């Protein structure tokens, strides 16, 4: 399909970008609390960084998440793609596969909080 319509990925990407912008525009934002300022912004960043480094569970999640991200990125970019090209898989399929995986990750991101709540209720964590 890519060979007949090389502009198709750009058109589809533009459509989804437009739909995303429209969705963000239609959300009714209700901010509560203090008016935003640089001082409050930097205080929240400082508090978040200190919390991240002092809480062992959060720090562990940061280390594990960073490691998994970099290992996956290294595998995908430096080893996996050249192997697929060597095997004769067309380059357009690499983008299609990446798009399919990204599409599968979206619902996971949406429902992560609900899944986590169910896991916490059924586990013995405090």
Determine the oligomeric state from the structure.
single chain
Gyration radius, in Å: 21 Å
Shape: extended
- Order of SSEs: HHHH
Number of E-state strands = 0
Task: Measure the end-to-end span.
Answer: 52 Å
Chart the SSEs and their pairings.
Blueprint: H1 8-26, H2 38-54, H3 56-86, H4 91-122
Helix pairs in contact: 2-3
Would you give an account of this structure?
By secondary structure, the chain is mainly alpha-helical. It has 4 helices and no strands. Helix 2 (38-54) crosses helix 3. The mean pLDDT is 78.
Short characterization:
The protein has 4 helices and no strands.
Question: Any descriptors?
Answer:
single chain; mainly alpha
């Amino acid at each position: 399909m890519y060979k007949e319509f090389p502009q198709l990925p750009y058109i589809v990407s533009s459509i989804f970008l437009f739909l995303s912008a429209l969705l963000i525009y239609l959300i009714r934002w209700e901010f509560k609390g203090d008016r935003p300022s640089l001082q409050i912004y930097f205080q929240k960043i400082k508090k978040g960084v200190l919390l991240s480094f002092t809480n062992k569970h959060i720090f562990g999640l940061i280390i594990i998440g960073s490691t998994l991200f970099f290992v996956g990125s290294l595998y995908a970019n430096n080893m996996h793609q050249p192997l697929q090209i060597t095997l004769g898989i067309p380059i357009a399929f690499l983008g299609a596969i990446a798009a399919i995986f990204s599409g599968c990750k979206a619902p996971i991101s949406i429902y992560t909080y609900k899944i986590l709540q169910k896991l916490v209720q059924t586990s013995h964590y405090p």
